[in-house]
Amino acid sequence: MRSPRKPAVVAMAAAAALALAACGSSGGGKASSSSGKVTLTWWTNATAGQLKTVWQQAATAFHAAHPNVTIQVEPLQNEAFTTKVPPALASSNPPDIYQQWGGGQEATQVPSGKVADLTRLSSGWIGEVGSSAQAWQVNGKQYGVPYDLHTVGFWYRKDLFARAGITTPPTTLAELQTDDAKLKAAHIVPIAIGSKDKWPDAFWWEYFALRLCPTATLKAAMKGVNLSAPCFTQAGNQLKSFMTTKPFQAGFLGTPAQVGAGSSAGMVANGKAAMELQGDWDPGVMAPLTSDKKLNSELGWFPFPAISGGAGSPATTLGGGDGFSCTTPATEPACAQFLQYIDSTSVQKKVVAANVGLPANPAAASALSLPALKQVLTYNHAAPYVQTYFDIAFPTSVGQALDAAIATYFAGQGSPQSVITAVSQARNQ
Amino acid sequence: MAVAGDKDLDIPRAEPGPAPPVPRARRRPRPRLRRRTELVVLLAPALLLFVGFVLLPIVLAAWDGMHKWTGFGSLGPFAGLHNYRLVLSDPVFRQSFVHNVIIVIASILIQLPLGLGMALLLNRRIRGRAFLRTLAFAPFVLPYATTAVMWLLLLQPGGFVDQVMKLVGLGGLVQLWLANLHLVIYTMIVVLTWQFFGFAMILMLAGLQGIPGELREAAALDGASGWQATRRITLPLLGPTIRIWLFLSVVGSLQVFDQVWIMTGGGPANASSTMVTYLVQHGFQSYEFGYGSAVAVIIFLICFIFALLYQRFVLRRDTRGALTRAVG
């Protein structure tokens, strides 16, 4: 608690600088564009598992195809990026490629002047990614490129829906409420939620906002870090009246999202609840939480339903993803080429097989193991606008304040207005 | 204090006896220079470590707390005591402080009698004593994270605790242990008590070992009942142990983090937040390192002031005679 944070960051920056210096010298000077040979340092968050292998293979294969370009993979702990990237971008020797989640975090990095504008270099192929790529744009310029995507929607159990007499998944909020009632009548918990972790609450609040606010309002709200538009208050109000129908499991405020069979994912996996609003990764989370071998065939997916009278498009999705940014001007073309390679079908299929998310390139969809995931991917790519999770789109401190305020609202405290005020307070603090 | 009664009794105290005879100063006084060099050489490493890893970080944290700083790059604009004022005026921080105070009071009211009672019981020659001692002490040895996950699973709605309560006919008392805003802090206290009363017990047991059996025997010869001997002899002689336990318990209670963080994350709606969960939320998770540093400094000051006052007014008698004075 009384830890010397500043020296720690300085020391980390120094260590990073040393590491970079070492890499730079071993590569014989990476900015030696005159000789044509370049060495790219690549910071990824894949420290273990299949993805680490995929990246190493990609680096080797790319070097084989482009002998002038050597790529050094440097896996870092996921949590280390937030502390290591800023000092690296402030130094004269940042990594050439590094993990990028886009949104507000990317926007805070751009003023460092080190993040490469890839708009021109990626224009030939970025279209394949669809509108999700916008999450890696700042002021309309592409400063990063995703390699996988995430979409939030409803995962439901077909067997429980059938038992309650529900034939097709709901498409409107009213239908969802009718189905909730049917499930309750069949003594099934309609919806599980892991409110202990706060971010699942935010999914709900944000989807209500997505259905009630026009896209232009959402974009303006993200840009101005301001939720004062009336539709956001309306979202809070409508969410509250939805919650008065008690759609969630008893004690949902203390339920974790992903830990143990009693978590919200575990409840759906074990047939204790019929559905859950979660990311595309949910089947992967559920699998180890149950002994139900038929789980995958029982799982279905449907998008967040439309809200009648809402000004938002019912096709807008909430999501995010993982990507990379380039830095050094001398290695920019090679870096962009490499990112294009990562988004190529062959590499994307391996990324999908590593079970990290939906492919950024839909051509790799055939590698998806679950039929429902293909449906998610189609929906995501057809979306007119993909809204990044608010807590990623906003500057971190504002995003955290929003999540906390929404969680408090879920606990029955505060008001629709208190959520909006929390954002303006965090912004001005 | 627990030792107030020992003035009335003419019994030896548990304090350290008279200091052992000081070896006589050497005939030939050491030259001053040599003594000073000796001091510097012997003190320097410890002093360096202390300054570098304790004092400097505290000063730096206090300084960081005076800036708006995201933790990246150079310190942000100087804000004076703004962050400190914000922390102290934040109702969530105040709520967290109150929770810490509740935990302090609860651990004194519950763990002390429990630990003491168990120690007195297990100090007797009873069958299976070693086993019982180990059993009672076991929770304290468990990693905090393990304890937290274990209780998280036990306390799930419809989980083990609920099932057991239903089995013994207490089903009507089943609550949403971790989801009820008014109850969750007391659920946490149960978990903390479970984990830490063994520590109180083991300390008290150690203290009891240091009390000579002859005293109780003498009292028994004089016609004292078992309870009288405990009340008038054992407890007063256990004073120093109790006072040290109190100190450790209060400081520990002010810094509670792991179990709460894993089981509830301070929620729902901050109903179980502590000062340190608040620090982690607002410092690390929000990347507001300036603000977080201010929180850290405030927690430090609360603990430090308590420690100073406690040392000055409560522990003074226990440490008297244990302090080394410069000789010669």
Features:
heterodimer, A: about 425 residues, alpha/beta, D-Maltodextrin-Binding Protein, domain 2, 2 domains, ten-stranded mixed sheet, two-stranded antiparallel ribbon, 19 helices, about 15% strand, globular, disordered N terminus, B: about 325 residues, mainly alpha, MetI-like fold
Give the topology.
The complex is a heterodimer of chains A (429) and B (328).
Chain A lengths: L4 H22 L11 E7 L4 H17 L3 E7 L5 H10 L6 E4 L2 H7 L9 H4 L14 E2 L2 E2 L2 E13 H6 L9 H13 L3 E4 L6 H14 L2 H10 L5 H14 L20 H6 L3 E7 L2 H5 L8 H4 E4 L14 E10 L5 H11 L2 H9 L4 E2 L11 H12 L3 E3 L1 H4 L2 H15 L5 H13 L1
Parallel strand pairs in A: 1-2, 1-3, 7-8, 10-12
Antiparallel strand pairs in A: 3-10, 4-5, 6-8, 6-9, 6-10, 6-11
Helix pairs in contact in A: 1-3, 2-15, 8-10, 8-18, 10-19, 18-19
Chain B lengths: L31 H33 L17 H8 L1 H32 L6 H13 L2 H11 L5 H8 L16 H26 L3 H9 L4 H12 L1 H16 L3 H6 L11 H11 L3 H25 L2 H4 L9
CATH architecture of the largest domain in chain A: 3-Layer(aba) Sandwich
Helix/strand order of chain B, N-terminal first? HHHHHHHHHHHHHH
CATH class of the largest domain in chain B: Mainly Alpha
Proportion in helices of chain A: 40-55%
Overall number of structural domains of chain B: 2
Low-confidence stretches of chain B: 1-18
- Report on the biggest sheet of chain A: 10 strands, mixed
Large-scale geometry of chain B:
flat
N/C terminus separation of chain A: 22 Å
Counting DSSP H or I runs of 4 or more residues, the number of helices of chain B is 14
Whole-number count of domains of chain A: 2
The greatest inter-chain interface is formed by: A-B, 43 and 50 residues
Cα Rg of chain B: 25 Å
Apparent shape of chain A: globular
